[in-house]
Amino acid sequence: MVVFRYDKTFEGLLTALFDAYFRRTFPDLLLGDGDSLPLFVTECHTVATDSEKSGRVWRALQKSLPDNVCNMLVMGWLSEEPGVDMMLMRYMRHAFSSPSGSSGGQNADSSRNGDSGKGGGRKAKTNSVATDFSNPDILRIKQLAQKVANEREHLMQFTRFQKSADAPDDTSGNGRSELCYAENESETAESISAGAGATYFAPVSPRYNALPLAIPYFRDRFRDQRWLIYDIKRRYGYYYDLQNVTEVTMDDDAHLLDGQLDEAMMAEDEKLFQELWRTYFHSMAIAERINPRLQRQHMPRRFWPLLTEKP
Amino acid sequence: MSDAITCNVPNFFLSCTGMKKIIVEKLKVLAESAKYDVSCSSSGITRAGKDGHIGSAHGWGICHSFTADGRCVSLLKIMLTNHCIYDCAYCINRRSNDLPRAAFTPDELVELTLEFYRRNYIEGLFLSSGVVRDPDYTMERMVRVVKELRTTHRYNGYIHMKSIPGASELLVREAGMYADRLSVNIEIPREENLKLLAPDKNHESVYSPMRYIHQGFLENAEDRRKFRKAPRWTPAGQSTQMIVGATPDTDSEILRLSTKLYNVQGMKRVYFSAFVPVNSYDTRLPALGSPPLVRENRLYQADWLMRFYGFGAGEIVDDLAPNLDLEIDPKLAWALRHPEFFPVDINRADYEAILRVPGIGVKSAQMIVAARRHSTITAATLKKIGVVMKKAQFFVECGQISGGMSQKSAVFGEAPPVFEGGILKKSDFSISTGSPTFSISSGRGLIGDMHPDLIRKLLTTKKPSRKGPHSDQMTILFPE
User: Fold this and answer.
1) Which of B49, B293, B374 sits opposite A220 (nearest CB)?
2) CB atoms within 10 A of CB A32
3) Can you give the three-state secondary structure of B402-423, one letter per residue?
4) Which of A72, A246, B146, B247 is in Cβ range 3.0-4.6 Å of B178 for a Cys bridge?
5) What's the pLDDT at B428?
6) What's this model's pTM, rounded to 2 decimal places?
7) Which of B69, B116, B378 is nearest residue A277 as measured by Cβ atoms?
8) Which fold would CATH assign to domain B17-316?
9) Which residue of A118, A218, A221, A224 is the best one to mutate when testing the B interface, meaning the one whose CB has the most B CBs within 10 A?
10) What are the Cα distances from residue A130, in Å, to A6, A69, A111, A213, B361?
């Protein structure tokens, strides 16, 4: 059995694939750095993650697969599912070994397939391996990517911000720096609208690591308020300072992990709006149509602890 | 406007605890009044955020919460006021009802919307109102709210606004400059029934704002062809809703009317709302034990068939059976009425034909069409793709040998399939040549070998619940 060890990063996986092609041996098993070896190992190679090698693999993938499929691979990776690395490696090998762009043509179905067949030239690759759903790896990766995409949408749906108390820049060191740690305190004070001073904090705990995928949405929508979205399961988050989004990790995040801001850190009208939202939420339900099963189907229970309206 | 609550509330929510209570109370009253409106979608327009503005819009809409009845909360669905001069029998806010009345000032509503929006509670505002004084007066007040949101507060999110029946064209035009979607509710499909239940309304008062909206939409499309930067006018189009079950209108009438609305008025959506008996004392209304939820669901399924599956209203319901079958979904019902169309060969049939198979939806059909270019699709693949094999097994063939052994090709080889819509030709319908094909279901046959009623029975009988061991099952007395 051939075993590769790598550092459990996406770059590491791409480097592993590079090494596999270089050594002409493909692993039967991928292990993380600390994992113990199985019995009967004939060969164990330790992959040293190299951005140049991984970059080459990635560029080659981008050449042979359409963009949405490359995104799909990343999303499959973000699912953090056990064994997804092996599936991805087989997928990528399959993509490299199948003649890219040569399929298609003779089949009348290409016009039916809606999203494919248009754009010609480069996009003729749409008909490539990615649609071969009778291959279990390809189907599974697609389904995993779909799950991650759904989780991203759940984040967009069920993230709830809490407004923290205003902390003007002159008293830095107060509530503000407690909440978020940002080195560059030199924000341009463009407080055009009401919410500009305060930071909006949102705890999330997604099943898959989909937060990076949802950030563009928050960035685009809440661009005139500071916000911090913190993944309390994976203990990292993103902070937006009206200019840029930066990834943050906090050494001391115990006070954030229960998902509710401290009363002292909350803006004074925060309680009122939470109550208003709860009132609104409960009065929207029509008693004659109560259907808790349908509610849970759309809004699974695992989100409830962090929802303002469902304490 | 004559209401005791509004007059003394300043724009600041925080002044004192008494004010807080009033605001909470008002929100409650006005939300309760607005909740019977079905539409809550925030779809139809994708708009990126702008610097210095708050908000964006997503083309497919985002539901931010779901109430205990399972309905989506996407927009802050709220009434500007629930005072109303009309006396519509089906409406909770009718004049003769004794219920708490309230009204928001525009400033309060604007602040509420923005604060909710900033916390990612909502996707936008859905503004409706009872009719005070006259339609134009009401409409003008509503326009003031959305105008203030858009201009003063640079709000860039979604706004859905109700257009009051009978409002003048100028006001509708102005509303469309700020709102993403406008809607007027038809409520009752047949006009004489509408007049019976809502003596102050008629179809003309509903259709005329609809026409203004449609015209404005078309003109705007024309403008945008000429000038790329022309501001958009009601970019997400218009929608409407009908109450189901308050009047004796049949499903056939409802579906035909909604087809017309899609085609003529350019509706984006027609919503159906199961009649909730809010005014049970009114004898013009039927006495229902519970709202006809199943019928509502079937109507939505039929609506989907018309919008995404290429069905016509005439195929789903006809004069023989003017109402939808409540026991099985309309697609399955169609399939059972048209056994000559099946079985469909998954590996050869057209996309449109595959789409008509019960158990196969748009996504599965697209995946099938894409995947069969690489290799033959088998029943196992179908199942993995996500096809509901419980239903589909009777209607498809995959050129695969398995337990069933029911040769179908002989039966269908002679009789060419007939198809009313004229979409499918005989050649689309694959007749396997050479190797015989077999059904994929073990022990059960295809629709060609079985009476449709038998399939119906197989699909509708409920399995006994799995709770507890079956009474016939033997048990191990002495487990190891």
Assistant:
1) B49
2) 12
3) CCCCCCCHHHHHHCCCCCCCCC
4) B146
5) 38
6) 0.83
7) B116
8) TIM Barrel (3.20.20)
9) A221
10) 26, 7, 17, 21, 20
